[in-house]
Amino acid sequence: MSANDVLQGPVLETRGLTKEFRGFTAVDDVNLQVQEGHIHALIGPNGAGKTTVFNLLTKFLPPTRGDILYRGKSITSKKSNEIAQLGLVRSFQISAVFAHMTALENVRVALQRKLGTSFHFWKSEKSLDHLNERALELLEEVGLREYADTLTVEMPYGRKRALELATTLALDPTMMLLDEPTQGMGAEDVDRIVALIKRVSQGRTVLMVEHNLSVVSRLCDRITVLARGAVLAEGDYQSVSRNPLVREAYMGSDAAEEEGAHV
Ligand SMILES: Nc1ncnc2c1ncn2[C@@H]1O[C@H](COP(=O)(O)OP(=O)(O)OP(=O)(O)O)[C@@H](O)[C@H]1O
């Protein structure tokens, strides 16, 4: 295989990815391929294994079997921080954003985390200015410039989720893993986040777990449907939503009810 073949392959790939919890197979021989530049959704009814796949991809959990490849190289035995350094970054949950710091301070902390190792960096006033500039740029990018000095605890929920994206972008990801980015949002916030994800995904690859199928239909190039830990179907929104197996798997589940509510 030439170097070119590697670059043209999927950005992120799993081969036979399996996770068992005391004999219960939560993720069952999953072969996932995420192509460069795509927004790829991982969907499926409750308990399908989506969160477990995410936890495996970001090394929160070790797999029982199988391999994970990023840009053609195995990352199966790497740690969370090591894969973040490779550019594969999971969005932080709100709980990881400091409630009693301002939006600007939170983004600055994320930027510092990225630069963390270079202590000498902090000795220069100039570099601190630069950090503030970059933090403001990131807030601008997610439409939060006016919230720069607002305490995070006082921000509306939808804006906190946007801040979460800004702190993710601070780590300079080439690929972002977004865990239910529109969860718990009203329609207006959902629209704003959809537009935001569209914008920040330019030049990047995104894999997202998302229950809201309207969001998936508007954003995603490709969709993988999980059911009972295994891949049930894969394709674009049209083909997946017409698939009788997918319809059956969603029938009677909470996700089907959500679909009704959102589509
Ligand atoms: N640490 C664990 N120990 C035992 N079983 C687990 C553990 N984590 C997940 N499971 C089980 O694995 C299955 C898949 O769970 P997972 O949370 O990955 O599904 P999901 O698709 O993300 O569901 P949801 O949409 O409800 O968040 C479930 O049956 C769950 O009970």
TrEMBL record:
<dbReference type="InterPro" id="IPR003439">
    <property type="entry name" value="ABC_transporter-like_ATP-bd"/>
</dbReference>
<dbReference type="InterPro" id="IPR003593">
    <property type="entry name" value="AAA+_ATPase"/>
</dbReference>
<dbReference type="Pfam" id="PF00005">
    <property type="entry name" value="ABC_tran"/>
</dbReference>
<dbReference type="InterPro" id="IPR051120">
    <property type="entry name" value="ABC_AA/LPS_Transport"/>
</dbReference>
<keyword id="KW-0547">Nucleotide-binding</keyword>
<dbReference type="GO" id="GO:0005524">
    <property type="term" value="F:ATP binding"/>
</dbReference>
<protein>
    <submittedName>
        <fullName>ABC transporter ATP-binding protein</fullName>
    </submittedName>
</protein>
<dbReference type="InterPro" id="IPR032823">
    <property type="entry name" value="BCA_ABC_TP_C"/>
</dbReference>
<feature type="domain" description="ABC transporter">
    <location>
        <begin position="12"/>
        <end position="253"/>
    </location>
</feature>
<keyword id="KW-0813">Transport</keyword>
<dbReference type="InterPro" id="IPR027417">
    <property type="entry name" value="P-loop_NTPase"/>
</dbReference>
<keyword id="KW-0067">ATP-binding</keyword>
<dbReference type="Pfam" id="PF12399">
    <property type="entry name" value="BCA_ABC_TP_C"/>
</dbReference>
